[in-house]
Specification:
Mean pLDDT: 93
Strand content: 15-25%
Low-confidence stretches: none
Number of strands: 21
Number of helices: 14
Oligomer: single chain
Length: 462
C-alpha cells in the first residue's frame, strides 16, 4: 500500500523515529483479537460485575463496529458522525434508528463530542467495546434487567481494562502468538534500513515490559539481519507509558533491567535503555531533538496523534489497519462510483437549465413550461438511477456503517482528525519499506470549491 500524505514531511530532517507497539509496530489479527477480548469481557461482566449469565453466550459480530464510531451513553446509541458533528447513522442496540427517530433525538444539530455523554471508539482495540455495548443495549431493550446505559458503558470499559491489567488477556495471546499476531518481515527490514541511514529508533508503548519483550522476541527477532535482538535496534524503549497521559503530565521514569525485568528509580538522563512511565518533556530535553526532528507512528488517533500534535509538535503518522480492506473495496466499487458521478453530472446540467428557465420566468420573459416539466421528469428518472447505484455502492463496504473515513456524502469525524493531525497515514508500518528514508513526502494540491470554477473553465477551453 501507499503512504497517504496530509502535509509536507521531509524524512531527511527526521533524526528520531518512535513507534507505538500494539497494532503499529506489531500487527494483530484484529477479528480474532477482538473476539477474544469480547468473550473475556462478557465473562468478566458476569463474574465481577453481577451481570446476567446469558452474556457468556453472546456471539461476537466483527462487522457491528468500526473504528471512529461514537457511543452515546445517555441514549444508548452507537453513532457515526460527520466532520461537522452531524449524526449520519445511529443504532440503538442492534436496530437501526429510522431518520425520524434519529432527528427527534439529535435535532439535526452538531453534537458536542467534548460532552461526557459521548465516548469515542478510536482504535481497533475498541471494536469489541462497541460490539458488546450494542448487544447489552439490545438486551436491555428486550427487557433484560441491566443498569443505565452510562453504567453499562463504564462497566464494559472497566472490564476490558481489567483484562489488560490482570494478564488474563495477554497470557492467552502470548501462548497463541501464531493465532493472534501477524508476522511481517518487512517491518524488521525497514527498521534496519533506517538505522543504516543514521536514524535513531525508539518505542513508546502502553504495554508492560514483560509482554513487550515476548511480543518483540516473536515478531522482530526472527527477521533481523544486522542485529542479534530487538533491544539492539531501539536506542530507547518506554513501556507502560500510559498514553496520552505521557504527553500531558510530568511523571518519573523507572529504569528496567532488560535481563531480569526489575525496575529501579532513575534520576539521570533518559536517552538510552529501557524504561517505564515518565513524560515526553524530559525525554525530548535529554535527547536534544526539536519536535520537527521527531516522527512518531501510532494507531490511536488521540493517544498517538492528536495529543502529540497539540502538546509537543512532533511529526505524526497514523497506522490505520482497517483502511486496507476499505481501499480494496473502493477499487472494486470504482465502476459504480463512476456511474454515480456521470449521473450526478447529468443532473447538475438539468439543474442549471431549470435554474436558467426559472430566472427568465422571474424576469418576466417568455418561458416554455412544458420544457421545465420535461426537465423535472428527467430529474426524477435520474434520481431513481442515482439512488439504485448508491445502494449498490454501499454493498462493497461494512453492511452497518459503510466507510470508515466517510459518513454519508461527508467525511467522517474520524477522517477530519486524520487529516488535521496526522502528517501522513498508512495501512501498516511496513508500507514505509517501499520508500527511501530520505524521501520528501508532499501532499497533492487540494482544490477548494471556489477553485473548481477556474479549473472547469480551463477544461471547457481545452
Amino acid at each position: 500500500m501507499s503512504i497517504f500524505i496530509n502535509r509536507v514531511l521531509n524524512m531527511k530532517h527526521i533524526k528520531l523515529i518512535g513507534f507505538d507497539m500494539d497494532y503499529t509496530l506489531v500487527r494483530y489479527n484484529t477479528e480474532k483479537f477482538e473476539e477474544l477480548t469480547h468473550n473475556l469481557a462478557s465473562r468478566k461482566l458476569v463474574e465481577s460485575f453481577d451481570y446476567p449469565k446469558k452474556l457468556i453466550n453472546l456471539k461476537f459480530d466483527f462487522k457491528r463496529a468500526i473504528v471512529g464510531l461514537v457511543t452515546d451513553v445517555r441514549n444508548g446509541n452507537l453513532l457515526q458522525v460527520s466532520r461537522h458533528g452531524k449524526v449520519k447513522i445511529a443504532y440503538h442496540g442492534l436496530n437501526l434508528l429510522d431518520f425520524k427517530k434519529q432527528k427527534d433525538i439529535y435535532q439535526d444539530m452538531a453534537i458536542d463530542l467534548r460532552s461526557p455523554d459521548f465516548k469515542s471508539l478510536d482504535t481497533s482495540f475498541a471494536i469489541s467495546n462497541g460490539v458488546l455495548f450494542s448487544q447489552l443495549v439490545q438486551l436491555k431493550s428486550e427487557g433484560v434487567e441491566l443498569p443505565s446505559y452510562k453504567q453499562i458503558a463504564d462497566d464494559i470499559n472497566n472490564a476490558i481494562d481489567i483484562l489488560h491489567q490482570d494478564d488474563s488477556l495477554k497470557s492467552i495471546i502470548t501462548n497463541n502468538f501464531n493465532k493472534y499476531v501477524i508476522k511481517d518481515p518487512d517491518v524488521t527490514r525497514m527498521l534496519e534500513r533506517y538505522i543504516d541511514y543514521g536514524k535513531k529508533l525508539m518505542i513508546i508503548t502502553n504495554s508492560d515490559y514483560g509482554y513487550t519483550k515476548k511480543l518483540l522476541d516473536y515478531a522482530i527477532n526472527p527477521y533481523l539481519q544486522n542485529h542479534k535482538k530487538w533491544q539492539d535496534v531501539f536506542e530507547l524503549v518506554i513501556t507502560y507509558a500510559d498514553k496520552p497521559r505521557f504527553f500531558k503530565q510530568q511523571s518519573r521514569f523507572l529504569k528496567i533491567d532488560p535481563q531480569t525485568g526489575l525496575m529501579s528509580n532513575h534520576e539521570g538522563r533518559v536517552d538510552k535503555g529501557i524504561f517505564q512511565g515518565g513524560w515526553f518533556g524530559k525525554l525530548q530535553k535529554d535527547l536534544g531533538y526539536s519536535g520537527s526532528e521527531i516522527l512518531y507512528l501510532g494507531d490511536h488517533i488521540y493517544g498517538d496523534v492528536v495529543s502529540i500534535k497539540k502538546r509537543c509538535n512532533w511529526r505524526t503518522a497514523l497506522v490505520l489497519g482497517d483502511l486496507e480492506s476499505e481501499i480494496n473495496s473502493l477499487k472494486e466499487a470504482a465502476p459504480v462510483q463512476k456511474k454515480i458521478e456521470d449521473l450526478m453530472g447529468e443532473k447538475q446540467k438539468l439543474e442549471v437549465e431549470i435554474n436558467k428557465l426559472d430566472t427568465m420566468r422571474y424576469e418576466g420573459k417568455k418561458v416554455n413550461y412544458s420544457q421545465i416539466n420535461k426537465h423535472f421528469e428527467k430529474m426524477d428518472a435520474l434520481n431513481i438511477k442515482i439512488s439504485d447505484n448508491l445502494q449498490k455502492y454501499k454493498t462493497f463496504f461494512n453492511p452497518y456503517w459503510g466507510e470508515i473515513l466517510r459518513a454519508g456524502y461527508d467525511e467522517s469525524r474520524y477522517a477530519e482528525l486524520v487529516e488535521k493531525y496526522a502528517c501522513i497515514y498508512m495501512t501498516k508500518v511496513s508500507d514505509l519499506f517501499k520508500y527511501s528514508p530520505k524521501i520528501y513526502f508532499r501532499p497533492y494540491h487540494r482544490t477548494m470549491p471556489h477553485e473548481e470554477i477556474a479549473f472547469t473553465d480551463i477544461l471547457k477551453k481545452c
